[in-house]
From TrEMBL:
Domain TraC-like: start-end pairs: 26-197
This protein's name: TraC-like domain-containing protein
Source organism: Candidatus Kaiserbacteria bacterium CG10_big_fil_rev_8_21_14_0_10_45_20
A Pfam family this chain is assigned to: TraC-like
InterPro entries, per database record: TraC-like_dom (IPR058596)
Length: 213
């Protein structure tokens, strides 16, 4: 009984009802789109370039008529895929000297990463969309008329309409950030689930998300 109550409490803590078409649907029916953003090495820019970036970013924020959220995910660098690749190369080597060099390099990488706290950072932009209250009123009217549940087709149509509005907002954000020198890529369903898993399981290492597409 205690385990069941604990599981239910954990589920209640997560405000997300489902992830559909790359869109997170919250329990209050808010749609949330997430984009992975590239970084800008601001410190290496000249003073004029820095001022231009700040000005563009200020103009971008002032042009928005909806809220957005920026957050950074800092995780310890997962070196395991690289080590696995090196071990494959070691197995494929036929020369003894090359095998020794590759093995020494693997040992060096393992030792270095164990001693140094190497972090990887991912930058995300979260764009929400709240369906207008008129849709809620229509649902209440249908319930009052005896239609307690919307049909699956009606739900799909409503979701697609709302997702279109969300994608328009995400396009505005994308264009604004491009002017600042920042590239963005919207997360798909699997990537969004992976991001949520990492957020709620910070102690586990998973395959990193990249901008390569």
């Amino acid at each position: 009984m205690a385990e069941t109550q604990k599981t239910k409490a954990a589920q209640d803590f997560v405000p997300i009802k489902e992830v559909r078409g790359g869109v997170m649907v919250l329990k209050d029916d808010t749609l949330v789109g997430t984009m992975l953003a590239s970084s800008v090495n601001f410190a290496l820019k000249s003073q004029d370039e820095q001022m231009a970036i700040l000005s563009q970013f200020q103009n971008f924020l002032n042009s928005l008529d909806f809220s957005v959220q920026f957050f950074v995910q800092s995780r310890r660098l997962d070196i395991r895929p690289y080590i696995a690749l090196l071990e494959e190369r070691l197995t494929a080597q036929t020369e003894d000297l090359m095998k020794i060099q590759v093995q020494e390099y693997i040992d060096f990488i393992k030792t270095f990463t164990d001693r140094a706290n190497i972090m990887s950072k991912h930058f995300f932009v979260v764009v929400p969309y709240n369906p207008p209250a008129v849709n809620i009123r229509k649902t209440v009217e249908k319930t009052f008329l005896g239609k307690s549940e919307l049909g699956a087709k009606d739900k799909d149509i409503g979701f697609e309409e709302h997702r279109t509005q969300l994608e328009q907002r995400m396009s505005v954000v994308e264009q604004g950030l491009v002017r600042c020198g920042v590239r963005t890529v919207p997360l798909g369903t699997e990537e969004a689930i992976e991001l949520l898993y990492k957020q709620f399981n910070p102690g586990e290492l998973e395959k990193p998300i990249t901008l390569d597409r």
